[in-house]
Design brief:
The chain is α/β, with parallel strands linked by helices. It has 3 domains: 170 residues, 2-Layer Sandwich (Nucleotidyltransferase, domain 5), CATH 3.30.420; 58 residues, 2-Layer Sandwich (Dna Ligase, domain 1); 152 residues, ATPase, nucleotide binding domain (Nucleotidyltransferase, domain 5), CATH 3.30.420. Helices cover 39% and strands 26% of the residues. The protein is built from 10 helices and 14 strands. The strands form 3 sheets. A 6-stranded mixed β-sheet has the order 3-2-1-4-8-14, sandwiched between helices. Helix 9 links the parallel strand 12 and strand 13. Helix 5 crosses helix 10, helix 7 crosses helix 8 and helix 8 runs parallel beside helix 9. The longest helix has 43 residues. It is globular. The two termini are 31 Å apart.
């Protein structure tokens, strides 16, 4: 009977990013979350060909599974921003079943591919004024049949059993929801910026309700290009230079040993201002795009204004990016800690234990998909998932 009642093992979270692969599996022991297994693998800068990257991905996942203490092969993974198309639509207020039918109709006109019900996910952002009418603002997310089939085929070849496929922005916000449990957080306006290698994802929410999602095609690779152009460096050298700066930034954020802090400060004194000048233009462009989206939210949702911005993604470790975004947005920017409150003593995440680990935001959000982190279950019942 004890075996029958034993809780099923948590699934393996898989985040296939533009520059790395991360896998994480959590366990629940006496009501506390622990990281039981994890692994990550970095793509070489020369891995550009899609077929080559696919074979590398399959091999990397197999190797991580072999070396890690992962239990089972159930998995929850994400589709990248390039694989998920996002559209906003306003419709009259309808029941849930009627909304699904209406969105299915809208999807046929708005997406460049056929959309079947189990390939369509939506978020109801709430009621907005449209002329003299009040309508529902809906965020539709859909993936093509080819994108889903290719993803499932990859998972099968890697030896994983897929149970859920999640759009990346929802996984990132799932991580942020952990800090919005109190009743007082119901009306808190939060913004999550996921600064990735290829793009930046913007997620705006009121309480635990997402109201806006947008992908901006400016990310780490844009900053690498800017540094290379400014300093007349080959792209590989620019990538290496910024990588050193971000490693030093991660140590500084982690508040590790004094020797590490001294090393980080020395590295910053050497190259910080050079990097800052090189990336300034691209970061200002990114900040302008973000500000436009926040202004749209403020107008659409009647004064929806954030007081802080939560920063996630590996690019956050570049101090120049953080400082310039804070300066240009005029809003306090805080570094996310997606694994805060989770015992990570049994695993090696690649950096010091006090480092924010903000690059694990997507993996953490996926890993916590089965965790009930909302105090009112009725507030999360509207979520729909891509069928695996």
């Amino acid at each position: 009977m004890k075996l029958l009642r034993r809780k099923e093992q948590c699934p393996i979270a898989l985040d296939i990013g533009a520059d790395s692969i991360k896998m994480l599996q959590l366990d629940e022991v006496d009501g506390a979350l622990i990281a039981r297994a994890c692994g990550q693998w970095q793509f070489p800068s020369t891995a550009i060909d899609p077929e080559q990257r696919r074979e590398m991905t399959i091999g990397a996942i197999r190797e991580i599974l072999r070396r890690g203490d992962f239990k089972g092969r159930r998995s929850v993974s994400s589709l990248s921003g390039s694989e998920v198309d996002i559209k906003n639509v306003r419709i009259e207020k309808l029941s849930e079943s009627e909304t699904l039918k209406a969105l299915q109709w809208e999807a046929q006109d708005r997406f460049a591919f056929d959309v079947v019900p189990d390939r369509l996910k939506y978020v109801n952002s709430g009621q907005v004024r449209s002329g003299s009418e009040t309508r529902s603002e809906i965020i539709m997310m859909a993936a093509s049949e080819k994108a889903i089939d290719d993803h499932l085929s990859l998972l099968d070849a890697a030896g994983l059993r897929p149970e859920h496929i999640y759009p990346e922005p929802l996984a990132v916000f799932r991580m942020a929801q952990r800090s919005l449990r109190r009743e007082a957080d119901r009306d808190t306006v939060s913004v999550v910026l996921d600064l990735g290698a290829q793009a930046t994802r913007v997620v705006v929410a009121r309480g635990r309700q997402i109201v806006f999602i947008k992908t901006i095609n400016i990310g780490g690779r844009s900053f690498d290009d800017a540094v290379g152009a400014q300093l007349n460096l080959e792209l590989a050298d620019a990538v290496e230079l910024r990588a050193r700066v971000m490693q030093a930034g991660a140590k500084a954020m982690g508040g590790n040993r004094k020797s590490d802090q001294d090393e980080s400060e020395e590295s910053r004194n050497d190259v910080d201002w050079t990097i800052r000048d090189a990336v300034r233009g691209r970061v200002e462009e990114l900040a302008k795009e973000i500000a436009l989206r926040l202004r749209y939210c403020s107008v659409t949702f009647r004064g929806l204004r954030p007081t802080t911005v939560m920063m996630a993604g590996g690019e956050v470790y570049d101090p120049a990016i953080m400082e310039l975004l804070t300066e240009n947005l005029g809003v306090e920017c805080n570094v996310s800690q997606p694994l805060r409150g989770i015992d990570v003593s049994r695993v090696s995440l690649g950096m010091g234990p006090r480092t924010p680990m903000c690059e694990w935001a997507v993996a953490a959000g996926l890993a916590m998909r089965d965790q009930d982190i909302a105090p009112h279950k009725k507030e999360v019942k509207d979520e729909r998932r891509f069928s695996a």
